[in-house]
Amino acid sequence: MDHFSYKDGVYHAEDVSLELIAKEVGTPFYCYSKATLERHFNVFSRHFDDVGAKICYAVKANSNLGVLNTLAKLGSGADVVSEGEIRLALAAGIKAENIVFSGVGKAATEMAYALDQGIFQFNVESEPELRLLSDVALSKGTKANIAIRVNPDVDPKTHAKISTGQKESKFGIAIAHALPVYKLAATLSGINVQGVSVHIGSQLTTLEPFAQAFARVRQFVEELRSQGFTITTLDLGGGLGIPYGGEEPPLPDAYAEVAKKETAGLGCQLIFEPGRMLVGNAGILVSRVMYVKHNDGGRIFVIADAAMNDLMRPALYDAYHHIMPVRAADGNAPTELVDVVGPVCETGDIFAEQRLLKVPAAGDLILFRSAGAYGASMSNTYNARPLVPEVMVHGSQYAVVRKRQTYAELLARDTIPSW
Ligand code: LLP
């Protein structure tokens, strides 16, 4: 459930009209609902209250400080993949003791920064990374708390580009070969082994892959313990899908039941890294139709002022985002198969191909739903298009939580060499 709805025929975020924001902020813009963020965090986390799990929000899904601060106030930790994300999480008020650091390519400087801040855990993804981390920790006279991210070789049954837990993937260490790496870790004096971590993919719409992966990890924890390792933390990753269109992903209670059942009796501190589930349906992208163009091939193009650089998911993963008018279409408007596209000079700059819609007119506002996750955080300035603003609504108020990038800022990034 979210807090976006039509009121008197105009789409609102909570109690604020999107027409009003468009008038004051301009288009395109991202709009987040604070009440929806809070609701999603609470709906997820309450199922783990009984086991005292750490919920470490995956910052990559949406790294806006306003979003992070909303989650920080609810007690969220952070799953980060770079020094930049650590800095954002800390700036938003997330405590270092609730930060886990994931990713296949952590740099020595990033490790040093994370150690200085006193983060909770490094999720180590390779043997060379483990050795480097030990050296960095030793140079600071400290030890790094680690889990090894194991790869359980489970098909998450999601899009290939967001699958991470199969043996062909770059992520983690094959579970079958992880024991020697734990043994190595035990010999490195800059390392303190504390746990095991796993993450098999994103936008999972069934529970079976989670159950399979968690069961394999459980077996592995038991094996490690039988070999004398003290394993106190178990990071089960993120990945729970959300409804974009017709999918019916499992609800958090069913997911929690599987996670708790598969790990029952281990006595580990559980960690979860949800991203999309918390923010995906708490955000939308609002855009203005610039032109409606008919071509010889019989196609109708709705040309929006948002483009693939603002929301990459359709171009990158053929992702579906529901498209709606901000002002409810009048019942008599014609319904046609249209292509909704952006102004970027790429054929792939398509939000929706042959989608049945009431054809909007130039000047109309439209919106893309479910754009809170991997929307703004993946946006870029391709075609020299400034980054669009982000707005957060709270009841009847709104705040610009990232202002529109100016052309001056865009140009200031580069320098012309003296020669
Ligand atoms: N933990 C780790 C180690 C991850 O790699 C990810 C996501 C998450 C947690 C959060 O997963 P979530 O709960 O959001 O599914 N850009 C793609 C999604 C990439 C996901 C990458 N890893 C998209 O737009 O669909």
What is the mean predicted local confidence, pLDDT?
Answer: 96
Number of strands: 21
> For the report, how would you describe the main beta sheet?
9 strands, mixed
CATH topology of the largest domain: TIM Barrel
The proportion of residues in beta strands is: 25-35%
Going by CATH, the architecture of the largest domain would be: Alpha-Beta Barrel
Separation, N- and C-terminal Cα atoms: 58 Å
The coarse overall form would be globular
Q: Which class of secondary structure composition applies to the elements? A: alpha/beta
CA radius of gyration is 23 Å
Number of domains: 2
CATH C-level of the largest domain: Alpha Beta
- What percentage of residues falls in helices of 4 or more residues? 25-40%
The CATH superfamily title of the largest domain: Alanine racemase
Uncertain segments are none
Bound molecules: ligand LLP
Count every helix, treating DSSP H or I runs of 4 or more residues as helices: 12
